[in-house]
């Protein structure tokens, strides 16, 4: 059996302030740190013993992974960082308050920018200092693959699914258990691919921060089971928190 564990990073400062974050590199809150530690405790208690891990180029995911691995006494295992696991780029919405954007553009429009499969938010111009083209961590990547001014979920799926097939899946074959700490939309892209979720239905999937999501596969990578390491009441509360971010 192969086991893949996906963890959305712990609460960030911009999660707390209800701001669109995307590729903006922000810190974890005290709650976010606690969520990383508790995720490690849950995984350790459940008997997981990873030998390989992945995360994005963004420190809220990197630090969450570090807290998890430290709690499991697994700081020594390989950590592979990739821009392909970055959050969806929210374009010019990055840094904007979600409720204020609803007041300005209407809930329907903001919901399309936030959750639709193929509608992109307004782009950041190339000459804007916030554009990834000016960030040294992306300077060695091709312009057309890693320096977007905006993305829809379809773009996130198109960058993460090939990486799943070529890298993460291959590491699972070798190490049996692999841990991925990333972001709501990059993880939704993986989940969409694994479970065959439609473009329409993926819109309603809400991933809570800091809760491990476990996939168990047979030898042919058919899903045997998938579940969150959390009780139903906690999971429901956290998912509703994510879903209601654009409501007053």
Helix and strand topology:
Elements: E1 2-8, H1 13-16, H2 30-45, E2 52-55, H3 59-71, E3 79-81, H4 98-105, H5 107-115, H6 143-146, H7 153-175, E4 177-182, H8 184-195, E5 213-217, E6 223-228, H9 232-243
Parallel strand pairs: 1-4, 2-3, 2-4
Antiparallel strand pairs: 1-5, 5-6
Helix pairs in contact: 2-3, 4-5, 7-8
Structure notes:
Helix content is 41%, strand content 12%. The chain is built from nine helices and six strands. The chain has helices at 13-16, 30-45, 59-71, 98-105, 107-115, 143-146, 153-175, 184-195, 232-243; strands at residues 2-8, 52-55, 79-81, 177-182, 213-217, 223-228. Strands 3-2-4-1-5-6 form a six-stranded mixed sheet. Strand 2, helix 3 and strand 3 form a beta-alpha-beta unit.
The strand line-up of the biggest sheet is: 3-2-4-1-5-6
Q: What's the N-to-C terminus distance?
A: 45 Å
Mean pLDDT: 92
Count of discrete alpha- or pi-helical segments spanning 4 or more residues: 9
Uncertain segments: none
Give the tally of β-strands.
6
What is the SS-derived class?
alpha/beta
Radius of gyration based on Cα positions: 17 Å
Order of helices and strands: EHHEHEHHHHEHEEH
């Amino acid at each position: 059996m192969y086991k893949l564990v996906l963890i959305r990073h712990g609460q960030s400062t911009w999660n707390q302030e209800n701001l669109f974050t995307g590729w903006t590199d922000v810190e974890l809150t005290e709650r976010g740190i606690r969520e990383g530690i508790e995720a490690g405790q849950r995984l350790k208690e459940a008997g997981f013993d990873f030998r390989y891990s992945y995360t994005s180029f963004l420190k809220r995911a990197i630090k969450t992974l570090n807290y998890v691995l430290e709690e499991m006494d697994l700081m020594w295992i390989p950590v592979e960082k990739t821009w392909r696991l970055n959050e969806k780029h929210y374009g010019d919405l990055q840094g904007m308050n979600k409720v204020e954007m609803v007041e300005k553009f209407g809930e329907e429009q903001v919901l399309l920018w936030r959750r639709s499969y193929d509608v992109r938010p307004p782009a950041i111009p190339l000459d804007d200092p916030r554009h990834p083209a000016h960030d040294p961590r992306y300077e060695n990547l091709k312009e057309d693959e890693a320096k977007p001014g905006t993305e829809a979920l379809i773009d996130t799926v198109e960058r993460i699914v090939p990486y799943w097939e070529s890298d993460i899946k291959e590491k699972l074959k070798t190490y049996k258990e692999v841990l991925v700490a990333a972001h709501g939309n990059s993880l939704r892209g993986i989940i969409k691919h694994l479970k065959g979720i439609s473009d329409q239905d993926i819109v309603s999937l809400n991933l809570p921060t800091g809760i491990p999501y476990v996939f168990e596969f047979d030898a042919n990578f058919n899903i045997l089971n998938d579940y969150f390491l959390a009780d139903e009441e906690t999971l429901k509360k956290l998912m509703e928190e994510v879903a209601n971010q654009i409501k007053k």
